[in-house]
Known about the structure:
Layout: E1 4-12, H1 19-24, E2 29-36, H2 43-49, E3 53-56, H3 66-73, E4 80-85, E5 88-90, H4 92-101, E6 112-121, E7 124-125, E8 133-139, E9 143-144, E10 166-167, E11 171-173, E12 178-180, H5 186-205, H6 207-215, H7 219-225, H8 230-241, H9 248-279
Parallel strand pairs: 1-2, 1-4, 2-3, 6-11, 6-12
Antiparallel strand pairs: 4-8, 5-12, 6-7, 6-8, 9-10
GO molecular function, one term: transferase activity
Organism: Cryobacterium tepidiphilum
Keywords: Transferase
Amino acid sequence: MNELPISVLVQTKNEATGIRHCLESLGAFNEVIVVDSNSDDGTQLIARQLGATVVNFTWNGRYPKKKQWQLDNVRTANEWVLFLDADESPTAELVSELALQFCDGRSPAVVAFDIPLTYHFSGKRLRHGHRVFKRCLVRRDRNHFPEMDDLEIPGMGELEGHYQPTSRGPIGRTTARISHDDKDPIRTWFERHNRYSDWEAHVRAVPERRQSISAAKSRQGKLFDKVPFKPLIFFLYSYILRRGFLDGRAGLDYALALAMYYWQIALKLQELRSGEAAHGTPVQLLVSGNSK
């Protein structure tokens, strides 16, 4: 099979633990670029040793954030780019599916693809439960990450938040998946989602901000934004309706962990609103560090 005419843009910041597995999975693509945020753990050295081009990124605290900055500033050999995190890798089935889409020099009739993720949690691959779709394969000239009113919000940092790029044209969806396998200790999952819940709570505290960010979310995200009793509904959806129980203890742990994440958002939002009512000014939640 000829190499896929897709440039892979891998997001890294101190990812020495998992970057090797990610890059070794990308042999079918004709260009791999690691966009690194000043790692000090050897990530850039490992990436170069494995043949990837390395571009350094230093966030200035403003827009564009990291992914849009790449669309604006990183030259690629191809018009199609695939955004990956360092703990993600395309499955063999996805490579085969993309080979059919891009065979004989053709470009797909769509301008972006939403790709489902297969999660690993507590060291086990989850075959059931909640499924995430990411719009991460895009034609660079037909997609743009919107600028949101979230620069003063704690929790996300240099990467775009939980919203999709805006696409000027039809959207496709693959059947095959990206594998998301975080090699870090489970505590880092909770640390990240503690920060993410700060961001989500601050977004929801301002109706105009919530509406603009919700509009840029996936169809799945837009629907879930309207659901009441999110922690309970999510658990029932993921563990029962989507048969997360078939994944054993890991399926239970994952459903509980994400239900707790939505509970955190609701609790922090309640605190923000209580603070505004009592003092007339927003309460700033305390966080530390940047998002991964």
